[in-house]
Specification:
Elements: H1 2-5, H2 12-24, E1 28-31, E2 34-37, H3 40-86
Antiparallel strand pairs: 1-2
């Protein structure tokens, strides 16, 4: 698995730590030194749902950021004006 991911053997512990939660959740099983996905179709559905959630969350954050642009512009103008008056 390390080779497939392009990792050196010195990074094995990093990979193990990343895999442990997947094993604990029953998504991966280890047999004969190899990992197997238990429910490949279920995992695919989960990944699609997570990707969709990520996109939705990014849209919400973008909308909130857009709402704050006028306030940020106003504050920047105030700071510029204060800097000019202090000079």
């Amino acid at each position: 698995m390390l080779t497939a991911l392009g990792l050196s053997r010195s990074k094995a512990s990093v990979l193990t730590k990343a895999i442990e939660p997947l094993e604990a959740a029953g998504i991966l099983q280890r047999a004969n030194g190899k990992y197997f996905i238990v429910e490949e179709e279920a995992l695919s559905h989960l990944l699609i749902a997570v990707a969709n959630l990520n996109v939705a969350a990014q849209r919400v954050l973008l909308d909130k950021a857009k709402e704050r642009v006028p306030e940020a512009e106003r504050l920047a103008e105030e700071i510029r004006n204060e800097a000019k008056s202090d000079s």
